[in-house]
Amino acid sequence: MSDKLAEFAGSWVFIIGFGIVLFAWIIANSFILKHPYDPYPFILLNLILSCLAAIQAPIIMMSQNRQEAKDRIRSKNDYKVNLKSELIIEDLHKKIDELQKLHQELLNKIDTLNKM
């Protein structure tokens, strides 16, 4: 839930929509309404914005913590995969070295047989 909310709160749709709502609130309370429900200096609007920030910040931080935990697990898995790959490559190097050694021994035996 926090991931979805953080994704929406950080989108252009939210930013533009929120800007439109703020602009409409200010215009309505400044010029349109004869008896504005939130006259300048917009104390109710400031209260709403403060409450939104107070709720939104911890939710976004929860989402970031969850993402950090996922990244930590992913990096541990990457390390394990890299370590296993390194061990496999090291084993392949040893096998190739043994094959080269056997190949050289066979060539030496063929040379000695050809000389006889």
3D structure, described in words:
The structure is a single chain. By secondary structure, this protein is mostly helical. It has one domain (about 1-115). It has three helices and no strands. It has helices at about 1-10, 10-30, 45-115. The protein is rod-shaped and about 120 Å long.
Provide a concise account of the structure shown:
With 116 residues, the chain is mainly alpha-helical. It has three helices and no strands.
Given as residue ranges, the uncertain stretches (5+ residues, pLDDT < 50) are none
Distance between the termini: 83 Å
**What would you call the shape?**
rod-shaped
Total beta strand runs = 0
Number of domains: 1
How many helices does DSSP assign?
A: 3
Question: Major beta sheet, specifics?
Answer: none
Average pLDDT, all residues: 92
Estimated structural class: mainly alpha
Radius of gyration: 35 Å
Strand content: under 5%
Q: Which range best describes the helical content: under 10%, 10-25%, 25-40%, 40-55%, 55-70% or over 70%?
A: over 70%
Helix/strand order: HHH
List keywords for this structure.
3 helices; 88% helix; 0% strand
